[in-house]
Write a structure and sequence with these properties.
The protein has helices at about 1-35, 140-145, and strands at about 45, 50-55, 70, 85-95, 100-105, 110-120, 125-130, 145-155, 160-165. The chain has about 170 residues and is α+β, with helices and mostly antiparallel strands. The chain has a 4-stranded antiparallel beta sheet, covered by helices on one side. The protein has a 3-stranded antiparallel beta sheet with strand order 3-4-7, with no helix packed on it. The chain has a two-stranded antiparallel sheet with strand order 1-2.
Amino acid sequence: MNNINRLLIPFILLLLGLLLTSCQQDSAQQQYEAEAYGPIEGYTQTDLQQNVLSQDKKDWQVSPYYEGLIRILPLFPNPISYGGTAYLETTLNGAPIQSYLELGYLNFNNQWIPIQQETVSSEFELVTFVIDSRNFGSSAELARGLHRLLLYDGNQRLITYGDIFIK
């Protein structure tokens, strides 16, 4: 009986530790997602060569769920003129993505507007999203301004978010 207790106690402690870690990660993910839906206050300015000219600390940070499993480079170039194109590069480093990644934004009515969906065939892959400024409005007047981009996995888990400025 004593030997069984010696084996069970470490096992139970390990399970409790995993449970607590999971709860903390869920809480951190929920906080991250709440911040993503908050007000837009700035954007990371980049050039065509992907150089960061000024940085918004909240832009393009990887969510707690995917931390260390995905690398996100800031959107480039940013800002862009109406009719222009920007790019978002993501590198999967063993991320357990379920089937696809989807990039989109919430319009002025808070409706989800998908921009691009990419099928993921490997846990180690480079995925590039192409963002056409015309996705944000049928004219420069309608598209002009700051827009929050959101990147989700196939399970609707937020991976990252950041802002694009259309001149």
